[in-house]
Amino acid sequence: MPAISLLVAVYNTSQYLEQCLQSIVDQSFSDIEVILVNDGSTDRSGEYLEAFAAQDQRFRVIHQTNQGLGAVRNRGIEEAKGTYIAFIDSDDVLAPHYCEALYEKAKMTGADLVISEYWIQFEQSKRTIPTTLLAERSAEKTSLIEALLHGDITGFSWNKLYRRAFIEEHDIRFPLRGELENIEDQYVTLRCFSLSRGIAFVHEPLYYYRVHLSSIVQRYQKQYFHHGLTFYHAQRLFLTEYDDISLYEKALDFFIVNHTLHCMLNEWKSQNALSLREKLDHMREMVTHEAFQDAVKQVEPSKLTSRKRMILFLAKCRLVYPLSAAASSYQKWIEYQTRK
């Protein structure tokens, strides 16, 4: 049984695959298996995967029809044999001691979940910056869940090491396409925070997260607002059943407001090909939605950035046209910052 199963999600990332897979080969910790799930790629990704697997017996390739990220991650879990599992996106890169550092922390602490900092690489500008999301943060679950819902820490799955027995004990799986998209990782991360008997941090960036034009976070995300509502209701049900929902009411309200603000920016991404009328209709739907209007009454605006406070004020007043202008301007600024 390998110590770690690395589960790599692959879809049309042939231009990045060699660098990603080589960073796995170059790991200082060798007791690993690598499960490469090709989610119906239409480029040469499948060929590259087979070539790597032919050179290293630790690599195993699974080809499937395109089913989405949730199904890919779930397939990896089902195939894994390692004591621990880690999720990798195939356009990203691992630091040479990624596996070693996470594994040593897990063994030393007995934690079900180990989280590290990470690097953000902006492909267009060539900038690389480290995160400091875990600095001076408590590993206590209530604090972590609140931080996740506030957006103070990210819910990505790839900067984490999970005890496989913990995942299986609680039957933790990712939601599928059509159930919940774009925030599948956050869905799982909240459950892991709540159910873990122990969580540990590695205060060092070990994962290189590449941001490029075809990244999910850069693309226009259809139905993003409705996926957030689904996430909200699913997490409320989970926390009511397995935790104490009263501890998280304010954080859930903040999530709805902050998510709606991000959805407003999403409408004005340069890659959104919808007509102006369609964008304005989406903006109007969001600002008049009952969940947003109820939550916004409970949220203290001072917890938001100044730019978001301005957008929130316009949204509360349901001033769709000036709101759209402000959101469009803010989104253009964000895209400029990722390029410079």
Automatic annotation (TrEMBL):
Classification via Pfam families: Glycos_transf_2
Gene3D superfamilies: Spore Coat Polysaccharide Biosynthesis Protein SpsA, Chain A
Domain of life, per lineage: Bacteria
GO molecular function per UniProt: glycosyltransferase activity
Domain Glycosyltransferase 2-like: 5-169
UniProt keyword list: Glycosyltransferase, Transferase
InterPro entries: Glyco_trans_2-like, Nucleotide-diphossugar_trans
Family membership noted in the UniProt record: Belongs to the glycosyltransferase 2 family.
PANTHER family per record: GLYCOSYLTRANSFERASE (PTHR22916), GLYCOSYLTRANSFERASE EPSH-RELATED (PTHR22916:SF51)
Listed name of the protein: Glycosyl transferase
Lineage: Bacteria, Bacillati, Bacillota, Bacilli, Bacillales
